Amino acid sequence: MKKLALFLALCMVFTLALAGCNQATDPGSEDQTQDDTTNQSNTDDTTQTGDTRTDLHLSLAEVPSVLDPHYANLIVEQGIIAQIYETLVFIEDDGTETPLLATDYTVSDDGLVYTFNLRQGVLFHNGEELKASDVVFTINRCKESARMYSYVEPIESVEALDDYTVAITLSYEYAPFIQYVGSLPIVNEKFVTEVGDDAFATQTCGTGPYMLSDFQQALSVAVTAYPDYWQGEASIKDIDWKIITDTSTSLVAFEAGELDYISVPSANWLDIEASGLYNTELLETAHTTYLILNHEIEPFNDKLVRQAMSLAINRDDMCLMGMDGLATPALTMARPNQVFGATEDCTTFEYDPEAAKELLAQAGYPDGFNAGSIKTLSSYFQKVAQVAQSNLSAIGIQCEIELAESSSYTTDCVNGNFGIAVMGVQLGNDYAMFDQIYASQFIDNLNLARYNNPEVDELFAQGVATVDRQERQDIYAQVIEIVQEDAVYIPIFFRQNPVAYNKDLTAEFHLSTTLYYEWSWN
Q: Which keywords does UniProt give here (predicted)?
């Protein structure tokens, strides 16, 4: 049961990554050319006297159904949840933590007991004050959640020492534990107990700056500023999200002034940016698109073949064809400026088809071979597969494109029902979390390559048991060199997210989520 729970929890990482394909940019959609319509401020909720707006109109690319912070799987659901709930600490883009519901914490000498002091006077949206018992309830509840289990798996016990002090004891020393604490939204024990888990899926009670005001499934979601928020009431008082699953329709609504902020379809980005009508930003993400090779199937079990295939991939073409140029070529699976412990000072396989042919010959395939098929989904995954097919053909490796159903795609990949597949993932900002795609314990889980290397397993175990940051970096550098030399996966690119928003908005962005409390109208 424990293994199943962990599998389900970790599998959500890929579910979210796939969901993200539709939320940000969808190069596979039918994009419309920008017309002459300008983005005028929506005045439905403002006066005509020049007063500053206090509303915000947004859209969702998928239909949210669950707003329970411990069971919501979709990125769009978690984006709403981030406005309503808070964690003990907030993890910044550089991996450092900022106090949030906890003012500070201490760690015992043996690294096993974390003691958090809670901020006093923080109110849930039902008026109940945040207490240590709520944190205990939250952590115990997360242990029962498939999605959250991996975050609390190291926890042996949790205890409320008094109303504002919580002690969390780990089963083993786990250096990146605070990163995980930053992913646990705290809920109110009284509210959840009273309404029950089923009702809690669509009723909310957090400590965040916004509280749910309307939830019409398949139509819209709305939140309003919580007047008693502990950091002060939000500048933007009302936020509504319309469900608009087609990116072209969202763009038209944005240009008509019906929406204040969108992720721009990549094919329309240059026109939107050049128009000068909007604020525009090209946001970097920690999302990696890559090819998986099943190491249990010949000839992908041969390192020379995997290296040759990586050398055959033209990543510049991948960025251009797959994301209309809105991506950064990736030679490793983790971005050094976004993931602690990541480095590009290692073996890499830049585009070199002639060298790829030489490696194939060394592996015993001077004339190439038939690789079967590349399993993929529609949208930009399919375009990535098509470029890969062309690149591999150039070195003598022939393969077909197999378009799979989204409902079974992740399960097929987890179970090894493929030879080559396209995938996307965003694992977090600490390299310890990358054990999920490399460590043998995650075969039949997120180790989709079915890679088995005891040395890598041992190094990951050393990494999480080592507190000194430089020592941890050195350990992960060893891991990265090994997995790069083994060409476990073929990294393709790091996605970028092109966004546009109303000229009168001041906006802040984070890698993990967007917090509208930080936004304001000029």
A: Signal, Transport
Pull the structure tokens for residue 505.
């908005």
Using a cut of 0.90, tell me whether the model's pTM lies above it. Answer: no
Residues 480 and 342 sit within 8 Å (Cβ to Cβ): yes
Q: Cα torsion for 489, 492, 494, 500, to the nearest 10°?
A: -140
- Rounded to whole angstroms, the Cα distance separating 208 from 100 reads 10
From residue 141, alpha-carbon distances to 60, 99, 157, 164, 185 in Å are: 28, 23, 12, 19, 11
- Other CB atoms closer than 10 Å to residue 350's CB: what's the count? 12
**What is the pLDDT, as a whole number, of residue 50?**
57
Give pLDDT, residue 30: 31
Give how far the C-alpha of residue 450 lies from the chain's centroid of Cα atoms, to the nearest Å.
Answer: 22
CB 24 within 8 A of CB 495: yes
> Which pLDDT score is estimated for 147?
82
Distance CA 519, CA 37 (A): 25
CATH of domain 284-497: 3.10.105.10
Residue 224: strand pairing partners: 211, 238
**Residue ranges of the domains in the chain?**
284-497
Q: Which residues pair with 194 in a beta bridge?
A: none
Distance CA 400, CA 409 (A): 17
Which residues make Cβ contacts (< 8 Å) with residue 23, sequence separation at least 6?
A: 61, 62, 75, 76, 263
Query: Would you say the C-alpha torsion 124, 126, 128, 131 has a positive or negative sign?
Result: negative
Shortest CA distance to 185 belongs to which of 162, 157, 201, 207?
207
The torsion of the CA quartet 322, 328, 334, 339, rounded to 10 degrees, works out to -130
Q: How many CB atoms lie within 10 A of CB 45?
A: 13
Q: Are 169 and 158 in contact (CB under 8 A)?
A: yes
> Which residues make Cβ contacts (< 8 Å) with residue 34, sequence separation at least 6?
251, 255, 268, 271, 272, 275
* Bridge partner residues of 221 (DSSP): 215, 241
**C-alpha dist (Å) from residue 211 to 83, 93, 217, 240, 378:** 8, 25, 17, 12, 36
299: preceding bond cis by omega (within 30 degrees): yes
Mean pLDDT by 10 residues, the chain (522 residues): 39 43 36 36 45 95 93 90 98 87 96 98 99 98 89 95 98 91 96 97 98 93 98 98 93 98 94 98 93 98 99 98 95 92 96 98 98 92 97 98 88 95 90 94 94 98 92 98 98 96 96 92 96
Distance CA 439, CA 422 (A): 20
| CA angle at 133 for the pair 129 and 135, rounded to the nearest 5° | 90
Buried b (16+ CB within 10 A) or exposed e, 98-116: eebbbeebeeeeebbbbbb
Cα separation, 261 vs 274, in Å, equals: 17
Pull the structure tokens for residue 401.
Answer: 């494109």
